[in-house]
């Protein structure tokens, strides 16, 4: 579904902030596996930013639906790391108190990042348990857990083998960078 792009009255819009937060020179992107479930694709987001628009992106569900899978990054001839761009947009949306989408995508995103910070990799079962506690939806979909475990879709125990100290340093550096005045 195409989106209408309005040129920002001030000129550059939020593209400079996105560049500063993500370190990504925004030009073009493609290949998003979740764009069919949202009102816009990564390439449309980039085009909005290029045209100096984009304030409405902070209220868009795509920034919360993005799985940070890097499919678009792996296919992009310009090597734009869209996951970093999306992270920058999420930071900006939270800082401005922008409307969050229906459901709890921001909570799940936060919980998955928390497991990465703690274990060096995602710990799906741990994030799911915290999500259930955070949303008080304890019994919803609980009947699917045995099948998911049996098929090996998620691990019962936290992951190991990652350099946890290095991952924590990365998160700490990101937090320090975000706290610096711009």
The number of distinct helices, counting runs of at least 4 residues, comes to 9
Largest sheet: none
> Count of DSSP E strands?
0
Q: Secondary-structure element order, as H and E?
A: HHHHHHHHH
Description:
This protein is mostly helical. It has two domains: 82 residues, no CATH class; 73 residues, no CATH class. The protein contains nine helices and no strands. α6 crosses α7 and α6 crosses α9. The longest helix is centred in the C-terminal third of the chain and has 16 residues. The radius of gyration is 18 Å and the shape is globular.
Layout of strands and helices, then pairs:
Blueprint: H1 15-22, H2 42-50, H3 62-65, H4 71-75, H5 82-96, H6 105-119, H7 124-135, H8 145-150, H9 164-179
Helix pairs in contact: 1-5, 6-7, 6-9
Could you name the key traits of this structure?
single chain; mainly alpha; 2 domains
Q: Care to give the gist of this entry?
A:
With 182 residues, the chain is mainly alpha-helical. The chain is built from nine helices and no strands. Helix 1 packs across helix 5, helix 6 packs across helix 7 and helix 6 packs across helix 9.
